[in-house]
Amino acid sequence: MFCSNNGIRRSPSSSANIINLASLLLLAIIFMSGKMVFCDDTTPIPTDAGGVNGWFSTNVKPAADRKGGLDPTLAAAEESPQVIKVRKDGSGDFSKISDAINSIPSGNTKRVIIWIGAGEYVEKIKIEAAKPFITFYGSPDAMPTISYSGTAYQYGTVDSASLIVDSDYFMAANIIIKNSAPKPDGVTKGAQAAALRISGTKAAFYKVRMIGFQDTLCDDKGYHFYKDCYIEGTVDFIFGRAKSLYVNTQLHVLGDTGMTVITAQARDTTTEDCGYSFVHGQITGVGTGAYLGRAWMASPRVIFSYTTMSSVINPAGWYNNMKPERDYVRRMFTLQNTSVLALEQIHLGV
């Protein structure tokens, strides 16, 4: 299991390149196999943040070393990956990300790495369910930005996202995903604006920055893994009913004149097998009084373990969404001196 009743700290405030790229991505591939991601109680994530990468390296081996343990479909897909270059200056295979995706046939069975050059790509992108095994990769030294200004008024909340991924086995590394719509003013109808919606299963995100205000990340459904990411927003900026693990991920709250809430996890019954687990992360931001989550649906499940929290967080932790009958979910967050304890447990093994 990834976490149990662990305390949370609170603080004040070219070719060779392609080969290296493939090696990096192979390391991440195992994120998407439940068997590889799951860690039992004999080797839990360490309490010391400094030990996380060592734990990760020990428990999460490159796909090349774990062929016998991977999902056979995934293992076959990784045998001969294809690389497509997208460059704004026209020096790549395509100058638009959407064109690169359109070049991939439906029913694709091989990993396709879309290597995206620096710059801002103003596109609304959707990867259909029939196109699995797609990777978005950007240089860590020149991270590209996917940006669009779609709103809920135009598309509906979940379809307002700048990037929508309905396919399985998606990966992204070193990418900025942004919704550039204005900050909701509390008056304008349908001002919510998602940056990313991930609805396919067995997805992994590494050093991805997600930028928006209300509803930044629709962590919609499926099994998802996030490591070393950054997510910012105002209200419900991580929402949905996926089953996701966030490791060493920074959540940045943007101060608001109204209510600020990080999570709106959408589990509606106690039998639904979904929830969010945040381990060794950091909560930063401006303003005060932000809630860790709210009871958007009847039985949300959210756990924070070994997470540093600035004074931006309301000590109450949880908001019942003006539904007193949902007050029982407060059991998930208990304030004891300077520690917040997660009183439920979550398993993310497939």
Total domain modules: 1
CATH topology: Pectate Lyase C-like
Kindly state the number of beta strands. Answer: 26
Biggest sheet layout: 15 strands, parallel
How far apart are the termini? 12 Å
Q: Which helices and strands occur, and which strands form pairs?
A:
Elements: E1 7-8, H1 16-29, H2 34-37, H3 52-59, H4 72-77, E2 82-86, H5 97-102, E3 112-116, E4 120-122, E5 125-127, E6 134-138, E7 145-148, H6 152-155, E8 163-165, E9 171-179, E10 196-198, E11 203-211, E12 217-219, E13 223-227, E14 230-233, E15 235-240, E16 243-247, E17 250-253, E18 261-265, E19 275-279, E20 282-285, E21 291-294, E22 302-305, E23 308-309, E24 318-319, E25 334-336, E26 339-341
Parallel strand pairs: 2-3, 3-6, 4-7, 5-8, 6-9, 7-9, 8-10, 9-11, 10-12, 11-13, 11-14, 12-15, 13-16, 14-17, 15-18, 16-19, 17-20, 18-21, 19-22, 20-23, 21-24
Antiparallel strand pairs: 1-26, 25-26
Protein name: Pectinesterase
Pfam family, one: Pectinesterase
Catalytic activity: [(1->4)-alpha-D-galacturonosyl methyl ester](n) + n H2O = [(1->4)-alpha-D-galacturonosyl](n) + n methanol + n H(+)
